[in-house]
User: What shape does this take?
Amino acid sequence: MPTLFESLRVGDLTLPNRVIMAPLTRMRSKQPGNIPTELNATYYAQRASAGLIISEATQISQQGQGYPATPGIYSPDQVEGWKAVTNAVHNAGGRIFLQLWHVGRISHSSHQPNGQLPVAPSAIKAAGGTFSATWKQVAFETPRALETTEVADIVRDYAQAARNAKDAGFDGVEVHGANGYLLDQFLQDGSNQRSDHYGGSIENRARLLLEVVDVAIAVWGAGRVGVRLSPYGTFNDMRDSDPVNLFTYVLKELGARKIAYVHLIEPRSSSAGSQDGNIQDAPDTAQLFRQSYPGVLISAGGYQRSDAMKVVEEGCADAVAFGRLFISNPDLPKRLEKNAELTKYDRGTFYGGAEKGYTDYPCL
Assistant: This one.
């Protein structure tokens, strides 16, 4: 029976434990330019005891940005900034994947090149709002539907971002196909009403995600590529009429590609960190989709020590990703193994700012 604290082979890597640091948006990159800094390097190096660190979501292009001060991976300065991060993590004995991100309609014209509208599979406005480039709360805008020819440009942006991640010294990449961002918008029929070969059938709606995964594999090899998905997730106004068949198809296609892992977010935690507590009576996707995917499965979403240990021991997941607990407990694997007291996080310092609530949490 495997345990949370045993090693795990994940693609080309052997992880020392199964406690994964989930991708966590913190909005602390250098401005202008969305460039990672030495402060970011310190933050990640403090958490290098994770079996694997998955970086904060990182936009593949200016068009892909949706929030202020989130880092990119499309400029030489950003690549250099990330090199400092990966060097710090590796010097501390850790492993780190870069999460590749395009937010699609979950943006605002203030973040877009030349103040253009955000892009999406279809011109369907999401409910709710976001932060503008000047940190003001604004409603989502009705996005512009991408032309078919433009989709290929986005795939090329992902390919270049994957190459840039390799130049920056990462150990691999995670394709962000979850949480209502662009690739998820193409997957789910609540946001995709296209009539070309990227819309309609499940196979068509999954086409963009799989094309992006394929270009990442071409750069890195399958054993250095992961994918994050959020079946049944409602964050960013997402819905699909047949999620079981949709995500079963996607998982089987990913399984055939023999990628390093799939990372599933439990819908009980679909708020994506915007609130505490879990949604009751939500489907258990680790159980629901375990049989659909033969490879390494990472489960994320509102886990505490006991249920994380249980999901691994019962074989419903091979590893567990922690988010908020890793923010306030940089040595989380040791604390979990020793069943030590956990430091409480301060939600008020999650986004933006400097050292406070970022690099000042103590180790045991």
Notes: The two ends are 28 Å apart (CA to CA). The mean pLDDT is 96.
